[in-house]
Each structure stands twice: as C-alpha cells, then as structure tokens.
Specification:
It is globular and about 55 Å long. Helices cover about 45% and strands about 15% of the residues. It starts with 5 loop residues before the first helix and ends with a strand. A 5-stranded mixed beta sheet has the order 2-1-3-4-5, with helices on both faces. Strand 1, helix 4 and strand 2 form a beta-alpha-beta unit. The protein has about 210 residues and is α/β, with parallel strands linked by helices.
Length: about 210
C-alpha cells in the first residue's frame, strides 16, 4: 500500500475516509496488516503529506491511532492529549489538518478505562498530591461529570458505570466543542467537505465502536 498523494487525497470523500478507518480497525482486530513498505512511504512523503483524517485521541499508550486503524506514514494527523478533549491549540491543529492540508474526516476517539477520566472522578484525592498542571487538566471534566452523575451516585473511578458514561459523554462534548468553537470546521462540515465523528476504543478487545 502506497502513501497518499495530493491526487489520491483529493478523490477521497468524508464517507470513504471513515470507511478506510473502519476497515483498518477490522484488520487490527483480526491481527492482519495491509501490505506496506514504511521506508518507501518515508521516501514518498519527503516532499509533503496528504493525510485523509485527523484523529484526536488520549495519550494512553494503548490508543495509537496509526496502529489500531492500521494506517501508514502520511495517512492521518494524530492529535493526542490526556482525556481527548479540545482546546484552542488543538482546534487550530484540526483547522490546519482539514482546511489547509485537505483531510476529510475528524475523529474524536475515546477509550475504555481512561486514566484521565478516572482522575477527573477522583479529583479530590489527586488535588492533594500537589501537581498543579495535572489538577488543571482533570478539572476540565467537572462540568460533564456534574451533568451525568445521578443523585446519590458514588463519584469514584471505581464506579465503572459512571466512568463509561463519562467516557462517551466526553467524546460527544468534544465534538460539540469543535462545532461551537471553530466556525471553520463547522462550515466545512456543513458544506459536506468533512465529517466530524466520535468513536470509542475498547482496550480489552481492540475494537472501535462508532458513536
């Protein structure tokens, strides 16, 4: 499988880009790989890159987009931050990926058993550890937690039901933030030039479920 070129990227629709990732995850789950020469792809992309998708995922070491979607060099822009949420810099990266570099798809990829979300649920204990920047990060999830937690429900990472509801709602909230905070991406989606979708990766099975 060769690296994408300007010509091949220009023929990809948002729907086809999504299909590429779905097919790639199927290969991954079945322990198969597309036949590609990575060194050849290094050579093919030395003058430029034409990725077909932007994937926002967690920093979790088990959630490498290139691996779980079986993609090669130059295929995807991979944006990673603990808890897979967006901020202004990440939105700028997405705008570059889609409006400048021509990607056709944005995927917000959450995953089961997310440590960042566990930290959000256990914020009271973590705040006592004296890590100012980590505290800032996990407090990002407070509004979502407050929206979904039920009356008298235990706020704890040990509450697996709450953790998984938080995971899925966090993905949906990130998608909503993309549309609210980036008129560029919202307009590209409205014009049919890109799709913005959510997904969830199961760290136990390797399967990506699309939301």
């Amino acid at each position: 499988m060769k690296a994408h070129t300007y010509e091949t990227q220009s023929t990809i629709t948002p729907e086809k880009a999504l299909e590429f990732l779905k097919e790639g995850n199927q290969r991954f789950v079945n322990n198969l790989k597309a036949n590609r020469d990575l060194l050849e792809q290094v050579n093919a992309t030395r003058e430029g890159q034409w990725p077909f998708a932007v994937v926002l995922s967690c920093i979790d070491s088990r959630t490498s987009a290139e691996l779980i979607f079986d993609q090669g060099l130059g295929d995807v822009f991979s944006i990673r931050i603990a808890g897979n949420f967006v901020n202004q810099d990440i939105l700028g990266s997405m705008e570059f990926g889609c409006n400048v570099a021509g990607s056709k798809l944005i995927v917000v990829l959450g995953h089961t058993k997310c440590g960042a979300l566990k930290g959000g649920l256990d914020a009271a204990q973590i705040e006592g550890m004296g890590m100012d920047n980590l505290n800032h990060l996990i407090n990002h999830f407070n509004p979502i937690i407050n929206d979904i937690i039920e009356e008298n429900e235990e706020r704890s990472s040990k509450n697996s039901s709450l953790l998984e509801r938080l995971n899925l709602q966090n993905v949906r909230s990130a998608i909503e933030d993309i549309r609210k905070q980036s008129s560029t991406l919202k307009n590209l989606e409205a014009e049919g030039k890109i799709k913005i979708v959510g997904a969830n990766y199961d760290v136990e099975t390797g399967v990506v479920t699309w939301l």
